[in-house]
Amino acid sequence: MDERDWTILMELYEKKNITKTAQSLYISQPTLTKRIQHIEQEYKVSIINRGTKGVQFTPQGEYLAKCAKEMIKKLQNIKETVLNMEEEVTGTLRLGVSNYIATHKLPGLLKQFQVKFPKVNYKVTTGWSQEVFTQAYHRDVQIGIVRGDYQWPESKLLLFEEYICITSTQKIELEDLPSLPRIDYETDTLLLQIIDNWWSRTFSQPPLIGMEVDKGVTCKEMVMNGLGYGILPSALIDDHPELYTIYLTDEQGKPLVRKTWLFYHEDSLKIKVINEFVRFIEQSNVSKMK
């Protein structure tokens, strides 16, 4: 079995569906079926059964599928070690990045890094910071860039800080917030906790949620169209001085901030491409990069 076969097993075990697995791997269903048959012939066992509810794995197939993730990691480590023996910085840099950073900061970072190291390739996964943290912790990615103060046990770099603030098109008074329509949005758990804790310390009644949207950027657009106020990280509104802003503070009157971190494992610095990327980030002004 090669890396492609292990990838097929991992994807099929996750999706339990031939059609969806073939689509995710950009191969035809007949090709996928042939690869599965090849695996079964190699191990001389049946690894899946097809039913009306999708694919069911046999005990042998389930065991192989659970080995797949570990085998893919081992093969990646072998490739990285071999490439690391070269003088040039080459290989694939596997990054896990929070959604906002992936959209607004990462393209500029990678553009500059690629100028220095044109033979480096990239595999970027995006998601909520909690998801990225988990990926970095389990070494599914080599570098994790997250927003929020997660308990990371290894090496990390502080990239930048941003304030948490109330924003509106019109001047509003803090004491009036419970009676004004708020635009709420989906975000990471840690930011929600910061906002909810501040609200419960400040007011005795819940907020008046006038609208719920998918993300902070959408909330900002709704605010700019006068549909209510939002509680947003300052990075989203720094380019909009026309908006009225109130910065949130803690019990001591200090501004509430949200930090963005780069997480990595110290032993991974033995790989040249990771070491160079971390050094590059240390020397970059990430907060001003777009």
Automatic annotation (TrEMBL):
It comes from the Bacteria. InterPro entries: LysR_HTH_N, LysR_subst-bd, WH-like_DNA-bd_sf, WH_DNA-bd_sf. One of its GO terms (molecular function) is DNA-binding transcription factor activity. Keywords: DNA-binding, Transcription, Transcription regulation. It holds the Pfam family HTH_1. Residues 1-58 form the HTH lysR-type domain. PROSITE patterns: HTH_LYSR. The keyword Electron transport does not apply. Gene3D superfamilies: 3.40.190.290, Winged helix-like DNA-binding domain superfamily/Winged helix DNA-binding domain (1.10.10.10). The keyword Transcription regulation applies. Belongs to the LysR transcriptional regulatory family. This is Transcriptional regulator.
